[in-house]
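Entry for the shared binder. Reason: the reviewer on the internal report wants the predicted structure included alongside the sequence.
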Amino acid sequence: MNYNLRTASNEDRNEIEQLVYGVLGEYGLKSDPGKTDSDLSDIQHEYLDKGGTFEVLIDEDKKIVGSVGLYRINPTTCELRKMYLAADLRGQGLGRRLLSHALSKAKELGYSRVELETASVLKEAIALYERYGFRRFDHNHLSSRCDAGYYLEI
């Protein structure tokens, strides 16, 4: 099956939330639409209008099966957010594709540093980040479900 990336819009909200909340549930993590996940309520404003991006991976039937966002922190730093992939597609290189795309997009947008917050139960994601050279650091604003921060100078 072929998968394509495209820029997300607010019309994708319900499908993105189903993906994100479904993956969180798999790992015993809680969704937080009022705070940590409130950025999904207006993707256009929270990501695109502020100098970031939000992309979705779609299958041949136009179903959203993955997501990845870059949220602007300041002119040189963005935060990798909402990188999720449907369970049945993991282990096929699509996570690497999402991350590679996000890092290329970060460079294209002029960022020199990418940060992220994650939960230690997301072992596969952490292994992927570390393979790409992300390093752990004390992140000053971890969300309620996250216990680790990582950064990469690009």
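Summary line for the report: The longest strand covers residues 64-74.
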